[in-house]
Amino acid sequence: MKIFGREPALIAAFFAAVINLVAAFWVDLTADQQTYLNAVVAAVLGLIVAFTVGDGIQAAVLGFAQAALSLAVGFGLHMDATDQATLMSFAAIAVGMFVRTQVTAPAPAQDSPAGSRA
User: Fold this and answer.
1) Helix, strand or coil for residue 6?
2) CA dihedral in degrees (13, 40, 46, 89; nearest 10)?
3) How far apart are CA 91 and CA 61, in angstroms?
4) What one-character DSSP code corresponds to residue 75?
5) What keyword terms does UniProt attach to this protein (predicted)?
6) Exposure check for the chain: N or C terminus, fewer CB within 10 A?
7) Closest Cα partner for 1 from 58, 64, 60, 69?
8) pLDDT > 70: what percent of the chain?
């Protein structure tokens, strides 16, 4: 899988270097903030790969949502753990509802005899 003709890991390494360069010379970022930015870059690349190959989209979207929330909190968003959990629960349900409409079973359902349980 390639993005812009490059492997996703190479792109992630490039952005990590750019983030370090920006933090060293232009913007005062803490080590934690640099970590949050790198996590979001990795999550975005994961989303791109998931959408390109068409597998694991739900996990990639939820991973991106978690990374974005971590980034926001790392940069000063005041949200307690309960609110974060509620937001992530909503994201999981919303993604699950979307994915449910997009997938089909690999084999047709089989009817069970009346009165029996599968």
Assistant:
1) strand
2) 160
3) 9
4) T
5) Membrane, Transmembrane, Transmembrane helix
6) C
7) 60
8) 75
**Domain residue ranges of the chain, discontinuous segments joined by +:** 8-100
89, two tokens: 């629960």
Inter-CA distances, 114 with 10, 110, 117, 118, Å: 57, 12, 9, 11
Query: Closest by alpha carbon to 16, among 1, 31, 45, 38?
Result: 38
Name which of 32, 31, 56, 30 is nearest 43 in CA terms.
Answer: 56
How many CB atoms within 10 Å of residue 99? 13
What is the structure's pLDDT at 115? 60
Q: What is the CA radius of gyration of the chain?
A: 20
pTM above 0.85, yes or no: no
